[in-house]
Each structure stands twice: as C-alpha cells, then as structure tokens.
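Appendix C. Worked example: F-box domain-containing protein
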Amino acid sequence: MPLSNAPTEIVSQIFSWLGTSDLANLCLVNKSFRDVVGYTLYSDITFKRDPDQNPRIVALLDTLFRKPELFDHITALTYVDVVQTLNPRLTYSWTDKLERGEMDAFAAILIAHLTQISHLTITGHNIDQENLIGRVLKLKISGQLPKFERLKFVTYFEGRARFNDVMRLFQIPTVTHLAGSMESFPRGAFKWLSDSAYFRNLTFLAIEGSSAANMGEILALPENLKSLAWSWEYATRTSNSSRAKNLDLDEIVTALSHVKDTLERLQLRITINTEKYYDGEEKINVMGSFSGLRDFNRITDLELPLVFLAGCGDNPQPLDHCTPGGIKTLSLSCVLLLNDAVKWNPSDDWLSDQGILALVSDMSNNSSTNLPQLQRINIFDVDNWFENWQLFEMLEETPLDVEVKVIRRVPQLWDF
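Step 2, the predicted output written as structure tokens:
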C-alpha cells in the first residue's frame, strides 16, 4: 500500500522521525503529503537572530494566518537571541509575552524586522507607551532597531489616541500619507519639530479629534500638504478640553491658512455632542465666518457643512460667497442645519427645505460666472439622513445647471 494511502496517524508518526529540512523538502516534491507534513513541520518553531539573514517572519505569519489550524499544532517555540539586542527591561517583558503566546509579541517581532513595507495600519490601543508594539515603534524611529526605509502610508485610529503616543507617527520622515486620531495637546508641543525633516514629505494628513488651535500648530509645519481631512467634535457643556464649546469659524480659517498655498483637497466634518438626545441638539455658540476660504485658490475638491458657507445670521449668505473659485467638486453636509444657532433656517421643515434648495439652485445657476470650474455638488448627511429625506428628494428632482448628487452612504473620510 502506498504511504500516501496509509492512515494519517501512521504517516504522522513516520514523519516525526524526519528532520525539519527533510520535511520541508517532502512538502515541495509531493503535494499529497503537504497537509500531513505541515502539522509536523510547524509543531516546533525556532527564532534565531542571524546578522547575515533575517528570519522569514513575514512568510511564517502569512502561512499561519492563511491556515490558522496550524496554530493548534505548535507545541514548542524557541527564541534564540531574537530580542537580546534590546534593553533588559524590554527584553524581559517581550520574552515573557512570547512564552505566553500573546499575539502582540509576535507582531512586535514582525514590525521590528520590517524595513521595506510601504503601508502600516494600526488599530486599538497598540501604540501607547505601555504596549510592546508602541515601544518597538519608538525604538525603530530612534534608530535602535532597523528603520522603516520605504514606509509611505500610516493609519492609526481607535484607542485612547493620547497625544504623546500618536506624535511618534509624525517622526517617520519617509511618510507621505498620515491618518490618525489625536486628543488635544499643550501649546507649543510641535515646536521642537519645526526645523526637522519629518514633515517635509507629508502630502496627505487626516486628523480626528484635534481642536482648531492644535491644528494651527500642526499645519504650520508641512511644506507640501496637498490633502487635508479634519474631523472634530463640539460640545456646549463639557470639561473635556478636546471638545470646543464655541464654534469659531475665523479660528478654523486661520488654522487652515498655513497650507493655503499648497492645499488642493479639503474635508471638514464636525459632530455636535449633546446631552439632550431626545430634544435635539443643544444650541451651539457660532461666531466668525468662512469668507477667508475664498482665497484658497488651489483647492479643487472641498467638503464641509453647508452652514459654514451660508453662515448663521438672520439671512443666509450665497454659497459661492466663501467658496474658492477653482472648485471642481463641492460636497456639502447637512450637519448643524437643525441647530438653533442657525437663525436663517426656519423650524418649519417645508420652509427649511425650500430655503436650502434655493441656496443650492442659486449656486448652480450662477456657477458659470462665479465658479466656472464647478462640475458637481454632492449633498449628504452624516447623522440625520431620515430627517432630511424630503430635502434630498427635492434636490434630485430639481433640474440644475450643475450636476447635484445626493449621497445616501456617507463617503469615507480617511481615503488616501
């Protein structure tokens, strides 16, 4: 009887007498043995640090994640000098986590050896200073571990997003696209980076949760920023410093002015935090205007709340009054329209819809003169789609000079 037809238990027992290199060769020459041999081959894994050859950690993890059943067959794991080059405190905690089989310890080994990756996405709490992955990133950035040589795209969202932890992502000089959550930070925190090369290559920045004052400090640094996505939260009653109590449009424009000469794409989203959920939004304090945005001549793709263009006074401003003249695509969200701070918008739903329709229609009909490059207007609502469905139907049914598209699925904000 051919060996390939023998019971799996017998085949496994025979293969257990062979060396690792023999098992690997057997997998290559006979596909029928691969499934059986694989379990034996991955039962005993040794990590060995060789200065002339990096361990094939990427290939190993790729195989394990494609065939997670192999994890159940790993019975022995040996670490030969794999983390001994680090400081004693980190070495002890790292090997301790490895022996307990914690996944972040294996991920840290992977990250420690990577130098040629171009994309890195981190979620959860994995970069805080107590976490092993965060500490490994810090060592790579400081040069104590092999540096990232080709890393261009970095994304970090979720977790506590503490400033001191997120800031290290700004210190990877090769990065061109950076997206992350960040809480507020002390004034002057970025000053020490002002003369460095860290921001020189940055062309895309997406930040969630940072105030206008903080963004002003960050945006003063990049020399060639072309795309900015910025999302934050306002609250009328809060002790959280990361939530502004007043919506100051002048302050936002001032923060943006640092990148006026390079910015081509701008996305602004806000959320109004309220404790009166069933009674609607609390009235927010709005001041200033967005008229300064008109001077951002390089912007061709703009997303922001409609209220930022129309203002909150007794009478709405024409939407093209603040819109940069080179705009090709304009995306307007309906956030804040129902807030009591918007004086011009009546409480009657039908009158409100008619007023908004008139604003969009006037912009469209006057576009050939005021916005000659405008090709499309997108309308969407981040939070209250069902409250605006009548308005959206009216916009779709009204013939306009410029294409108006109602977006029922909120577009992804952090899109490289």
